[in-house]
Amino acid sequence: MKYQIIDKKDTRSGFGAGLAELADKNPNVVALCADLIGSLKMEKFIEKAPERFIQVGIAEANMMGIAAGLTINGKIPFTGTFANFSTSRVYDQIRQSIAYSGKNVKICASHAGLTLGEDGATHQVLEDIGMMKMLPGMTVINPCDYNQTKAATLAIADFEGPVYLRFGRPVVPNFIPEDMPFEIGKGILLQEGTDVTIVATGHLVWESLVAAEELAKEGISCEVINIHTIKPLDEEIILKSVEKTGKIVTAEEHNYLGGLGESVAGLLARKRPTRQEFVAVNDTFGESATPAELMKKYKIDAAAVQEAVKRILEK
User: Fold this and answer.
1) 60 noted as active-site residue
2) Which one of 33, 240, 282, 312 has the lowest number of neighbouring Cβ atoms within 10 Å?
3) Active-site residue, from 21, 60, 127, 277
4) How many whole angstroms separate alpha carbon 142 and alpha carbon 15?
């Protein structure tokens, strides 16, 4: 495998590291939190720039309104809370106060997907990508590891417009080189292949690389693409790949409705009809268990990616 594990870290710590760096680099960056400083790894930002931190408390809707107001005087607010509280709880405020008027707010959401683990279904949001990508003008980013999350955090500070940045709680392989540029809206070709294209996002990127390595032992050549920006989608990299392979598997830690797979399916329907398999949660809520147990049960791990590749090759 071209990409090797550097170490293992949680992606939320990548966000914390990026935010702390922004405390020094950009005096306009302001951080807001809804009583989850430790969970969002905001401590270092607060140490460096306490005057640019606002503890809103358990009042997420108010946090979005404050963030929208801060942009009027040129501030760049980064809001921080769990992904379900960052979206479904405050969707009206985001739509009306941020997206509609194109406010430069960075909505930073931790503990996304099933891999939140033991906290269970009430916290395991699996519909947030769909909710956020439907908002006109909203950029949606879902990085795959610590290094990419840190890079994404730095990149969105320089990007003008509302952004939804999604990351997670569990410790996962950190494998993207620290110096790899992060370009919003540009996918990354991680591995070339000829038999099938695997397009993955978030925690499923590493799982897809593992699956591709196992499939190679059976003579199956997989092209693996990291789509860290779900909106705007990098259409060029996907279309170029399926032109070669003629088959595609999408992999994500999200409901198959409304996620990356549906965005890819829409692209292919419009521009190049292609056989597609989905690796995603099948329209259900999660439950309490370890991240590994949940990924296995809900079929969003490396084994599930392998099965999807074999299904599409058998058709």
Assistant:
1) yes
2) 282
3) 60
4) 12
When pLDDT is cut at 50, 70 and 90, the band that residue 86 belongs to is very high
What does the pLDDT look like over 24-76, one tens digit per residue?
999 999 999 999 999 999 999 999 999 999 999 999 999 999 999 999 999 99
Q: How far apart are the first and last CA of the chain?
A: 27
Looking at the whole model, is its pTM more than 0.85?
yes
Please tell me the distance from the alpha carbon of residue 44 to that of residue 172, in angstroms, as a whole number: 22
List the beta bridge partners of residue 80: 33, 108
- Count Cβ atoms within 10 A of the Cβ of residue 136 and give its class: 0-12 exposed, 13-18 middle, 19 or more buried: exposed
d(CA 37, CA 207): 29
Pick the closest to residue 80 from 38, 121, 50 (CA basis): 38
Residue 100 tokens, joined: 């509609």
Q: What is the 3-state secondary structure (H, E, C) of the chain?
A: CCCCCCEEEEHHHHHHHHHHHHHHHCCCEEEEECCCCCCCCCHHHHHHCHHHEEECCCCHHHHHHHHHHHHHHCCEEEEEEEHHHHCHHHHHHHHHHHHCCCCCCEEEEECCCHHHCCCCCCCCCCCHHHHHHCCCCCEEECCCCHHHHHHHHHHHHCCCCCEEEECCCCEEEECCCCCCCCCCCCCEEEECCCCEEEEECCCHHHHHHHHHHHHHCCCCCEEEEECCEEECCCHHHHHHHHHHHCEEEEEEEEECCCCHHHHHHHHHHHHCCCEEEEEEECCCCCCCCCHHHHHHHCCCCHHHHHHHHHHHHHC
